[in-house]
Amino acid sequence: MPLSHLSPAPLWQHFQTLCDIPRPSKQEAALIAAIISWSECHNLQAQQDSVGNLIIRKPASAGMEQGIPIVLQSHLDMVSQKTNDSTHDFNKDGIKPVIQGDWVKATGTTLGADNGIGVAAILAVLGDPELIHGPIEALLTVDEEAGMSGAAGLAKGELRGDVLLNLDTEEEGELYVGCAGGVDVNARFTLQLENTPAQQQAFDITVSGLQGGHSGIEIHKPLANGNQLLARLLACAIDQGIKIAKISGGTLRNAICRDARATILISHLDVASVLEKLKQLSDAIIGEFSGFEPHLNINIEKTDIPKKVFRDEFSKRVIYSLLACPHGVRRMSDQFELVVETSNNLATITQTEKALIISCLPRSLMNSARDAQVAAIRSVFELAGAQVETLNAYPGWTPIKESPIMSFMQNVHEASFGKRAKVQVIHAGLECGILGATYPHWQMISFGPMIRGAHSPDERVSIASVQNFWTYLLASLSALAKVKTL
């Protein structure tokens, strides 16, 4: 069944368009052009700001001109992750959604419901002349998943609204009032190589089949990290006297590593004993994660012998620093139940001709705790001889449990569903923190439908929750149109 047959039809039709047009981070131009063309056909004012964000304005419905001016906000880009056997090219291929019961998911890739459902909902609101609402500005940002440069580049005075409704959270029935801040930490090791010794056999070690997931929302789960597992295997092999030629792992800063690989060399005389040690450790690791990572696979097979390998001392510094680098939850919040306060994602390992670069994404609800985590990561890698840089820092959104917008939205939720929403904080980098710093007078709140497996090929969105999300969004816009101030 096509997505357009689902309800609400306009939202799903727009989401299908988002699936059809490739939109990885920093490559949103084709989608923006399509939305601008659509806006012109609907007599809507659309323009891009200096960093590429798209702003669309829609006048209030008749008689609601004095309603509170609203900013509806979502981001245009999506995370690009695929299964190992997928041939999908995110730069040119559209996403292929499928319906499985109550879920919509993609075929072998991320779906892009994060944050495509929010964008689709905004476009559906803008395109419907019958809806009741006050003045609306749509802010569709770029590059959220790769560094939030769109939100960071939004200038003061571009928008006139007083209330921001962010549509980028992933739990139905929850209202979000705060989020974590984060910063990219990159450790760069200059490669120290030597000629490959004689009498060696080369092997590829591959860790694959892990679930992966969102490095903020799912960091508390017992998910394995491919980079960590590979480091454990390589540490075992180093103790057996092997050489390392290549290391790589992960693809995105904000996704938990699903796959990692290394090329090692073993002396002819030691092949049998080293492979036996690695098999024993591989079996033990698979056993450790058997309850949550049933598809974890560790494969070791012969490969071509490379011309250069890491020097022994360099190998130890790299592998031991990977073992020491913190990953996962550092501390839980003492203010919000079952919410992570501070964490780190050991995200990617990339090898170039001259360097090995290890990238991390620490997050925290508190900037001071985020910075303490950065200091810990920096210390590990600088002690190992790497050069460490931090960039793309963004602030958290300081939680305010009681506010006029919160009380108002709770009343709307209770009127719509007969119960109050859960007030929550998310351990992910919503753009609210950055946008609120630029527009401090805004009252902000975030909500969305139920999305699972974000930032992984298992990403899926609940059809029933999208209907409830739509119902709540329209009820909120209608209620806000009838008041001049909160």
What do you see in this structure?
- The two termini are 43 Å apart.
- This protein has 486 residues and is of the alpha+beta class.
- The strands form 7 sheets. It has a 6-stranded mixed β-sheet, with helices on one face. It has a 5-stranded antiparallel β-sheet with strand order 18-19-20-9-21, covered by helices on one side. A 4-stranded antiparallel β-sheet has the order 4-5-25-24.
- The protein has helices at residues 9-20, 29-41, 113-127, 149-153, 226-239, 271-288, 312-324, 367-383, 404-417, 432-438, 463-481; strands at residues 45-48, 54-58, 70-75, 97-100, 103-106, 136-141, 163-166, 174-179, 181-190, 193-195, 200-208, 213-214, 243-249, 255-256, 260-267, 297-303, 308-310, 328-332, 340-351, 355-364, 387-394, 422-426, 443-446, 451-452, 460-462.
- It has 2 domains: 3-180 and 397-481, 3-Layer(aba) Sandwich (Aminopeptidase); 183-394, Alpha-Beta Plaits, CATH 3.30.70.360.
- Helix 5 packs across helix 7 (312-324) and helix 9 (404-417) crosses helix 11.
